[in-house]
Write a structure and sequence with these properties.
There is one protein chain. With about 325 residues, this protein is of the alpha/beta class. It contains ten helices and nine strands. It has one domain: Spore Coat Polysaccharide Biosynthesis Protein SpsA, Chain A. Helix content is about 45%, strand content about 15%. The chain has a seven-stranded mixed beta sheet with strand order 5-4-3-6-8-7-9, sandwiched between helices. It has a two-stranded antiparallel ribbon with strand order 1-2. Helix 7 packs parallel to helix 10 and helix 8 packs across helix 9. The longest helix is centred in the first third of the chain and has 27 residues. Pathway: Protein modification; protein glycosylation.
């Protein structure tokens, strides 16, 4: 027993010291919420090439729906997604003339012709329906979604991936999930598209290593951040305007793990969250590099929790951007 005590005590002390070092690292490397914009990011172009100022998420809504599409080097995949989305939205407006919408394509510092491709839709449908926000430098998917959301006019705001992996008409499913939450009186609610029902099939098609990474990531999400949501990473989420302002104002993570922090923030604020099954297809051209992206996301998940615990990050009141 004495021998075991001599072995365990130094080990316990070493682990305690390492944990302390990790907390210090998490605190010292924590970046702050960055809502500043470059001057060029404050404007969009009309169909005739005139510059107009983007509105603010703090303004009252003037459209029923905003669709925010983050796009990085998506000149090839974007047209397929946009054609499907615009066909659906235009048909819905014809059937119900009181339905109003906008699509905001956020070019996240692309090196290809993503902005030029997106501006074709502005010229075809007008800048009232399609706007392009071109970021001066690459922020990451989370940063792009946030910048687009903060520039939107919708009563509800949908984030949708540029690859079109989720069938766009499934917006009706996430709208149903949002309505079922009955977000009155503060109008706070989030409805997440989910691929959890497809997991068994995807495991059968994945390598053992990728399956291990996937389950490891799910465990870290559950252990450190978000309880009760099976698929945090599906890029098809619908927010009430109020919930978007509350969550995106506190968002720190701008890359792949941003969805997890968003939902962590929502759960901290007790914002109700629905999870709704959607149709999803694997599209070639993913920007995720399996091993390194999962590693980065795993690190981010640990640091998300540690930084909130140590007070390095705090939940923000909804403040205006510069």
């Amino acid at each position: 027993f004495m021998y075991l005590s001599f072995m365990i005590l130094p080990l316990h002390s070493a682990l305690k010291q390492q944990r302390g070092q990790l907390l210090v690292i998490a605190h010292l490397t924590a970046g702050m919420v960055d809502l500043t914009r470059h001057e060029k990011e404050k404007h969009f172009l009309t169909a005739t090439g005139e510059k107009r100022l983007f509105p603010s998420l703090h303004d009252p809504h003037s459209r029923e729906l905003s669709v925010v599409v983050p796009a990085y080097n998506e000149e090839l995949r974007l047209p397929v997604m946009m054609d499907e989305a615009m066909e659906y939205l235009e048909n819905r407006q014809k059937q119900n003339p009181s339905f109003t919408y906008e699509v905001i394509v956020v070019d996240d510092g692309s090196k290809d012709k993503t902005t030029e491709v997106a501006l074709r839709y502005t010229r075809k449908y007008s800048a009232d329906k399609v706007r392009v926000l071109t970021l001066v430098k690459n922020r990451g998917k989370g940063g792009a979604v946030r910048m687009g959301t903060l520039s939107s006019r919708g009563k509800v705001i949908l984030m949708a991936d540029a690859d079109g992996a989720t069938k766009f008409s499934d917006i009706e499913k996430v709208e149903g999930g949002l309505n079922d939450l009955n977000p009155k009186p503060e109008n706070m609610a989030i409805s997440c598209g989910s691929r959890a029902h497809l997991e068994k099939d995807s495991v059968a098609q994945r390598s053992l290593f990728r399956t291990f990474l996937m389950y490891g990531f799910h465990f870290l999400v559950w252990f450190f951040c978000v309880k009760g949501i099976k698929d945090t990473q599906c890029g098809f989420k619908l927010f009430t305007r109020e919930a978007a302002l509350k969550t995106f104002s506190s968002l720190h993570v701008e890359r792949w793990a941003f969805d997890v922090e968003l939902l962590y923030i929502a759960q901290c604020f007790k914002i109700p969250i629905a999870e709704v099954a959607v149709n999803w297809t694997e599209i070639e051209g993913s920007k995720l590099v399996p091993f390194w992206s999962w590693l980065q996301m795993g690190r981010d998940l640990v640091f998300i929790r540690l930084r909130y615990i140590t007070g390095a990050w705090k939940l923000q009141s909804s403040h205006k951007t510069d």
